[in-house]
Amino acid sequence: MDTKALREVAAAAIISDGRLLLAQRVGPPELAGMWELPGGKIEPGETPAQGLRRELREELGVDTVIGGRIGVDVPLPDGMVLRAYRVSLRDGTPTALEHSAVRWVAAPELAAADLVPNDRAWLADLVATLNAG
Ligand code: 523
């Protein structure tokens, strides 16, 4: 039996001025061109917050503050789990260093966006958070 903890992929709901940051994936082919909450795999020895801050520095060139969870756990293949966190910007302007583009969306544009399938699980929670803000 596999006794290892679930490997986590953490994703960032970066919210600023009532808008959410979306990033456009470059791959794999079935996800290329679709929009996601940026993030990535947490490495062994990292807390989710440490790993997500590292990913956001690498992918967007920003310094961030990682907050609480938003939305459900999304099971991924290979025993991984995808989790979203509320994130605020501390320093820098998000830049697409590893994505093809980034954009800020308010609730109506988010609802209409071509999101990667996994991230659609968080849509209602994200829209509610934006509308509350
Ligand atoms: N997702 C996903 N949504 C989402 C993220 C950040 C990731 O569905 N918002 C999925 C896509 C992959 C897996 O989680 O199946 C890992 O994400 P990836 O490829 O962005 O993680 P990285 O950047 O750590 O991956 P490698 O550098 O390729 O190891």
Automatic annotation (TrEMBL):
By its UniProt entry, which InterPro entries does this protein fall under? MutT-like, Nudix_hydrolase, NUDIX_hydrolase-like_dom_sf, NUDIX_hydrolase_CS, NUDIX_hydrolase_dom
Gene Ontology molecular functions: hydrolase activity
Q: Name one Pfam family in it.
A: NUDIX
* SUPFAM superfamilies per record: Nudix
- Answer yes or no on keyword Hydrolase: yes
> Residue limits of the Nudix hydrolase domain?
5-128
Keyword entries, A-Z: DNA damage, DNA repair, DNA replication, Hydrolase, Magnesium, Metal-binding, Mutator protein
Q: Which Gene3D superfamilies match?
A: Nucleoside Triphosphate Pyrophosphohydrolase
What Enzyme Commission number(s) appear in the record? 3.6.1.55
- Catalytic reactions of this protein: 8-oxo-dGTP + H2O = 8-oxo-dGMP + diphosphate + H(+)
The kind of enzyme this is, by top-level EC class, is: hydrolase
Q: Which domain of life is it from?
A: Bacteria
Needs which cofactor? Mg(2+)
For this chain, the family text in UniProt reads: Belongs to the Nudix hydrolase family.
Stated name of the protein: 8-oxo-dGTP diphosphatase
> Which organism is the protein's source?
Rhodococcus daqingensis
